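Quick one from the shared queue. A colleague (R.T.) flagged Aspartyl/glutamyl-tRNA(Asn/Gln) amidotransferase subunit B as missing a structural entry in our internal table.

Convert sequence to structure tokens.
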Amino acid sequence: MQWDVVIGLEIHVQLATQTKIFSGTSTAYGAEPNTQASAVDLAMPGTLPVANEQAFRFATMFGLAIDADINRRSVFERKNYFYPDLPKGYQTTQLAEPIVGAGHVDIQLEDGTEKRVRIHHAHLEEDAGKSLHEDYHGMTGIDLNRAGTPLIEIVTEPDMRSAEEAVAFARKLHGLVTSLGICDGDMSQGSMRFDVNISVRPTGTEKLGTRTETKNLNSFRFMEAAIHREVERQIDVLEDGGTIIQETRLYNGDRDESRSMRTKEEANDYRYFPCPDLLPVVIDDAFIEQIRATMPELPDAKKARFLSDYNLTDYDAGLLSANARTAEYFEATAKTSGDAKLSANWILGELSARLNAEDLSITDSPVSADRLGALIQRIADNTLSSSGAKKVFDLLWNNDEADVDSIIAREGLKQVSDTGELEKLVDSVLADMPEQIAQYQEADEKKRKKLMGGFMGPLMKASKGQGNPKVLTEILKKKLDG
């Protein structure tokens, strides 16, 4: 039997406010456990919450970015449940009247096709604390610093049909919120967390299957793997004659395993009711238009500018504009180097490979944009060969404090491009290769191209890797063809 996959996402985005959503407590990351949890955050008797205006500004920015309805009136409600890291016994959130209504996000898939993912709504809410299991034997520690941190929860329609589409959407959303500046996007620290709702149904049917929710995925790689794992599990259960139970599941990316966490609750299990301590929040058109006037450049607009200003390929422009920090790094590198295309190649090639290998974000790169730009400048003006450039990059990556030109001089990496000097080198090497020369001259044009490599190896070795390959190739071809 053939199966269709149906996926919807719920995304928790931690807002980059200085203080919490209902108190003046700091949201700064890295404080000692339980030092940033005030009486308001814990709902101690006699305390009253006050809504953070900046959280509403950030939510409105997001709504404008996805072309959504911005609701002029929004209401906070209490979602009641017991969990150790929820000291209030309820979460203050929005249900019936959220700040952001229906909108959409357009994504582009690897084959170039575009798809629109509808956003059902996005609502403001407070985060819970954090349970810590690793450092305790048989016990769990509770850190309430995160309790009360403002979030927007973004809920999509079930519009995605594969792991590829879900990850493409997640990446687009990540680029959107970081470009807006409303979230730092650090998924390793929980700044964005994805809950994936998955169901399968026989191909050709319209009725949705029973869905499961896999919670708290904090990387694109884990999301993709978790979707594949859950789709495979559901199909196996159905094809063996079983039924899917609506439940919440957890995925362990290190072991590529998922397990059931609990049966899925319905909204009425949480006994929602309007929060008696918070009045409805009303915003007007002037508030919205003021925010619209200060909106930053969004990824789609940035991509269009990169295409026109830097003459990049559609693929490169898309990758470089998708993340705000990557876009900033690219523009700074291109400005220093004077060569946008070469800068794009290095950022998407060598730099990205190193960052991925060491699980670093571009903001943590040991090589600054200015230093990479200086390196690319020396590639562009033929001071460095490709192999020499990689050697310099290695030294920069390992925190060599010297500037690029000093490293080139110190390591003897300056490329030789003088035609007179290289011509003597070619003559010397060819003098010891009469058989290869005869073989080349007897070959047809197609085979000659393949045989050229047999000459270039000894030439580069003789020049100690410093001969300009382009100039050497021109001289070699002239002599061999003559």
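DSSP finds 15 helices and 15 strands in the chain.
The chain has a mean pLDDT of 92.
Added to the table.
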